[in-house]
């Protein structure tokens, strides 16, 4: 219910703001007080309510937002047709299609590689090694966090959380307290690790592809992100049981070709960066070239089977493509078009004026980051990018940081937290996370302070 209240509040407050919003970047038509605008707000809030109650209703989150996005743009089309500006509505819609298409292709390739690494048992091998080392609970607490932090910068916070969560669950069967604390630590570390890398989170990828920051500029957030994880971890350390778990034996060997896939993934990332920085082409094109690397390698890896030889380690790259999470991709599409439609109607211009003119960029970015604990950070970041307030690179880095790590303050604030609640059901819960939200909030504040101190020259 908190998510609903905040989403409704932000949008409806923007809808009734006075005409002072004229200073903000105005849409082609201001429809914020037109019947199509009000109806669009109702549709958006209604869809968001259905997203919040996804588990209770057993309705995938993509379904209501797809409906909302389509209906909102139908209303945009009607309003612009009545004003005799249908061509302008068409141009605005095409801009969103282009933006979504680039992000979709980029994420599609990245997730295909992650699925392939999982299929080649790279993550199982990592988990088995950790399980067999005989570490104590406190050592494992720090090791899993220390691994989640950099892994999230390369993969994504969801995959990282699930891999590290499997380790915590395997070793914490005899200590529910360790499982709860270990999962909280992983969520914080995974979200923090994703904040300093263009590939670490969808929001950072959106900022990079929008051209607000260059690839290497993100890495100045490394120390603030590290502070965001270390501060609450140091506080929670003393609550972790100072014991050793019972020894278990876990064996898992990587499949043939796993190391080559790792190298190809690294080469794909390098190709995407090169396309963007040196050729000034969309990085998604570089990622698609990298998908070609994987396709060609899978062909040669499967040659023995084509010759009729015994070969049970087939790599079917098309199967890994089919395993991508389509619910997430379609949710992403619906959110981009729903929020983009509200922007075309004029509401994001009003919100931009209220936040960035009324509060100032620093306060606005901190508040938006905190909201990401209760409102999904993807629509929040897309809204900021659509508002496109005039900000220094230091401020764009600040919103990237806060939107990336703010979700750690509640277990429902990020995909990593939601996934681990399912994986460690009954052990890692909303209330167990909430017990340490104060420590995570201290880390949030400390990371902001670190950014303002270390990167002050960028403001």
Helix percent reads over 70%
Beta strands, count: 0
Give the number of helices. Answer: 23
Percent range for β-strand residues: under 5%
Oligomer: single chain
Order of helices and strands: HHHHHHHHHHHHHHHHHHHHHHH
The separation of the N and C termini measures 36 Å
Poorly predicted spans: 1-26
The overall pLDDT, averaged over residues, is 84
- Name the shape in a single word: globular
Helix/strand/pairing category: mainly alpha
Major sheet size, sense and barrel closure: none
Radius of gyration: 23 Å
Secondary structure layout:
Elements: H1 2-15, H2 35-52, H3 54-57, H4 62-82, H5 86-119, H6 122-131, H7 137-154, H8 157-171, H9 176-195, H10 202-209, H11 222-237, H12 258-277, H13 283-301, H14 303-306, H15 317-322, H16 326-345, H17 347-357, H18 361-371, H19 377-387, H20 393-405, H21 415-423, H22 430-434, H23 437-454
């Amino acid at each position: 219910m908190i998510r609903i209240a905040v989403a409704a509040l932000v949008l409806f407050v923007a809808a009734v703001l006075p005409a002072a919003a004229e200073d903000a970047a105005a849409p082609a038509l201001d429809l914020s007080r037109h019947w199509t605008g009000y109806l669009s707000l109702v549709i958006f809030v209604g869809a968001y309510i259905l997203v919040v109650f996804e588990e209770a209703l057993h309705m995938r989150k993509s379904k209501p937002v797809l409906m909302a996005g389509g209906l909102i743009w139908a209303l945009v089309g009607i309003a612009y047709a009545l004003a005799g500006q249908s061509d302008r509505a068409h141009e605005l819609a095409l801009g969103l299609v282009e933006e979504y298409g680039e992000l979709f292709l980029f994420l599609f390739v990245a997730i295909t590689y992650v699925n392939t690494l999982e299929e080649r048992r790279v993550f199982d091998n990592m988990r088995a090694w950790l399980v067999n080392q005989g570490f104590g609970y406190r050592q494992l607490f720090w090791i899993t966090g220390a691994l989640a932090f950099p892994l999230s910068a390369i993969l994504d916070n969801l995959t990282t959380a699930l891999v590290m969560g499997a380790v915590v669950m395997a070793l914490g069967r005899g200590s529910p307290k360790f499982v709860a604390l270990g999962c909280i630590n992983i969520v914080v570390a995974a979200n923090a690790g994703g904040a300093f890398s263009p590939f670490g989170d969808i929001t950072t990828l959106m900022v990079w592809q929008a051209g607000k920051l260059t690839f290497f500029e993100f890495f100045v957030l490394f120390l603030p992100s590290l502070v965001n994880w270390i501060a609450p971890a140091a506080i929670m350390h003393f609550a972790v049981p100072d014991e050793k778990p019972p020894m278990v034996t876990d064996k898992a060997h990587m499949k043939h070709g796993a190391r080559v896939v790792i190298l190809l993934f690294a080469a794909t990332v390098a190709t995407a960066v090169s396309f963007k920085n040196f050729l000034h082409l969309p990085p998604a094109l570089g990622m698609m070239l990298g998908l070609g690397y994987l396709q060609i390698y899978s062909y040669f890896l499967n040659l023995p089977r084509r010759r009729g030889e015994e070969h049970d380690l087939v790599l079917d790259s098309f199967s890994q493509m089919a395993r991508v999470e389509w619910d997430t991709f379609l949710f992403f599409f619906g959110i981009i078009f729903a929020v983009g439609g509200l922007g075309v109607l004029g509401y994001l211009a009003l919100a931009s004026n209220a936040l960035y003119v009324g509060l100032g960029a620093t306060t606005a970015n901190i508040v938006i980051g905190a909201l990401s604990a209760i409102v999904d950070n993807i629509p929040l970041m897309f809204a900021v990018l659509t508002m496109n307030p005039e900000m220094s690179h230091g401020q764009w880095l600040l919103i990237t940081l806060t939107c990336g790590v703010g979700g750690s303050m509640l277990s429902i604030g990020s995909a990593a937290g939601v996934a681990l609640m399912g994986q460690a059901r009954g052990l890692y819960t909303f209330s167990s996370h909430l017990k340490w939200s104060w420590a995570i909030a201290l880390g949030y504040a400390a990371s902001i302070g670190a950014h303002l101190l270390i990167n002050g020259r960028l403001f």
